[in-house]
Amino acid sequence: MGSAGTEAPMRLQVDSCLRTLSASRDPGEIVHALRTLTRNLEDAEFTRLHYTHAIQVLVSAHCLGRSCDDEEIKKLWCEMFLRGPPDQTLLLLLDTISSRGESAALERCMSVLEKFLSSGRLQLLLWSRCEVGGACSDSPQLRETIIGHLAALPSITCNHLHTDTPDTFLPQQYYPLLAASMLDTLEKTCCALRAGQDCSLGFVAQVLGKVCIQGYSSQIFETLAPRLSSLTRVDPLWQRVTQRLLEKVPERCTECVITGLIRSLSGLMGNLVLTNKKAQFVLTHKLLLQQYQHTTPLLKSVLGYLALDSERRTLLKQVVRSVCQVWCNSSAVKHTSVEQQLYVSKALLLCVALLSRSEIQELRQEMFQCMLGGVQCRLDSGIERIRRMGMIVGECLSHKLDTPGSQLKFQVSKMKAFCMLQKLQMCTSHFYYYNCGLEIFISFLDSFTDQEKKKSAPPRYVRDCLEALMSSDDAERVELSLQLAEALLRKNVKATQEVSVQFSKVLLHLEDRYSTPHFHTLRQKAMVALTVTDIKPVVDYWTTEFYSLNYSLRQRMDILEVLALSAQELSEPIINKHAGAQPISAVTALEQRDDITHWRQIVEKRIQSKTRRISKGGTPSVKAVPNRYAPVAGFFFFPLLRNYDKPQVTFDLLGSDHLVLGRLLHTLGLLMHLAINAPMGRALLDFVWAVRFHTDQMVRRGVVFAVCGVFLSMPGENLLTELGDDLMETRAWLADVAENDCDADCRSLAVQSLMLLDKNLKTQLPKLLLSFIPNQTMFEF
């Protein structure tokens, strides 16, 4: 009853003050209301039940704007935010900033948030969660929200304020401030522990983990690491507190925290690797064997951390065994990049350098097997850098094992290797190895990967080029082969025809494993060269594989693009056959241009050639010229129509794969357009008619383009005799598309198709009528 009795007066008093702040125009009343509310900031009931609602009203109220010259109102207004519970204040200010447009309220919130950060409220927030019982009433959802806002304050503010973001909110300033607040909280924790009070570091650890997992570990540890290093070096309590902080980091964040910390200072971790399984996995396996983007200094930090303590050296020996197994694995040598193999080789050399004589004897068998197997599988490699890597590491291992009469010697950079080995022999302490001889070995390993590039000879024959692309172990050799493939294929016709289908298969499945410059363009040009050099077998292969299983959409679209480009080249007049390669070099890769624009230009040019302009006189008839495409047009065209309605496990042309359907329709339209007078119009119209109302605009464009190709390619008399009544229905559909389709390209193509159709009909109808009148009647008439 007593609690209920005190809540009612408090609620009435707060409600009265908030009504005054919302509605009153009297500065005296506003000051009185603000003073009443600020006096209640020391009351636990007010901060627990009424504070959040009160500052919400203050953000929205116009009292500050109406009385902007009253310094006391400004001061009291700020006190409400800077003396209340910091967690509630931070949440409200960030939510307001992220949801308000440009306004006086937004400016006030930005200003008070800057004061909030500079006045030590972050330290107070963190410490309030460290005290036992300080956050026991928080729900998990509220706790997670507060942590998220603390960790992402720069993102929240910058995403809304953009270029107007104050410097205080930027990552470069905010995260060092947050790190300083963490240090202050850890110091208070140490003081509390010395005074016999219990504390919890779970909240601070969660904030640390959240910041690191968002990618700001370097900004945090630049401030944390030096200070913690100096404190933990002389104070055992600080060592316990720091290790406890790291142990409390959530498991999902452990890797990011450990990686960030070890870049700065690994000594802060103590024996965390022995007590935290996640940290042990990251340090002994993931950073060494699963990732290879880290620098040599980080490798040194990880392995040096394991070697510096007698309890952790057991893990160092475990790492040596694991790295040895990977280094001598022939499958790993074949299927991992040179960079990753270099990274593992560095790790192996660093591990071996840190072993004592007794540990080397203990691990002698594993190291010996590693040396023999690893060197052998690298010497078998076709990549020079891998072979050199095997020789260098093999010599080092052989020297460390110190096997009399059986040390490995290779003729590789003799002078440098000799000097290096001499310095290694002079080193006695394993720590000295770490700082002296190993430095030379690692730097030599780094330099040879940059300087010793294999100078591959360019392929001179078609089969050499094919072999290089099939093995594809050497990036430089693959690049040279792709660059020369088109010229070799066109120059050596007989040799190309012998391997055309096999070469086509290799190119279709070839992947850009080495980020080769202009890979897709070079590959496409080679595929077109194969097609125009050995037409029927290669075209049969393309059209068969287009509907086969287990191809990606990209590969199917590559096939269509190659067929279209090949048909364009073959349709060039034979008299210009020496310029046959010109259209290919002028056509860019599929992903670099808009095909609908390119093909519309072709259609418009053809329309203009058929359009009669009175001012220019009659258009002369175009003289027919033989080309290489006309006799083989059917091989390109008809196989693409055979399986379109048969969905497969990996390909559903009439279902989800409408992108390929649109490309297919455009390709068929172009193949029809290039095959003038060929008997393919009826088949193409029957195919496109079923999908003319497709929901995807790319498909509808393809349908109209294909119809336009039919009208361009078929003579007017054939349109009437072969299509008959279907022409009227087609014309009605085109008129509807031209008027009502939501896509501008569809409407434009439909208008052009109608122009072609109407011109053909106007030209051919009088001839058709005259053909029914007997000759004598015509003369009489």
Automatic annotation (TrEMBL):
InterPro entries recorded: TEL2_C_sf, TEL2_Regulation, TELO2_ARM, Telomere_length_regulation_dom
Domain TELO2 ARM repeat: 311-402
Membrane-crossing residue ranges in chain numbering: none
Source species, domain of life: Eukaryota
Native source species: Cyprinus carpio
Family under the similarity heading: Belongs to the TEL2 family.
Protein location: Cytoplasm; Membrane; Nucleus
Protein name: Telomere length regulation protein TEL2 homolog
Any Gene Ontology CC annotation: cytosol
Occurrences of domain Telomere length regulation protein conserved (ranges): 459-567
MF (Gene Ontology): Hsp90 protein binding; telomeric DNA binding
GO terms (BP aspect): 'de novo' cotranslational protein folding
Keywords: Cytoplasm, Membrane, Nucleus
Broad class of where this protein is predominantly found: cytoplasm
Pfam families in UniProt: TELO2_ARM, Telomere_reg-2
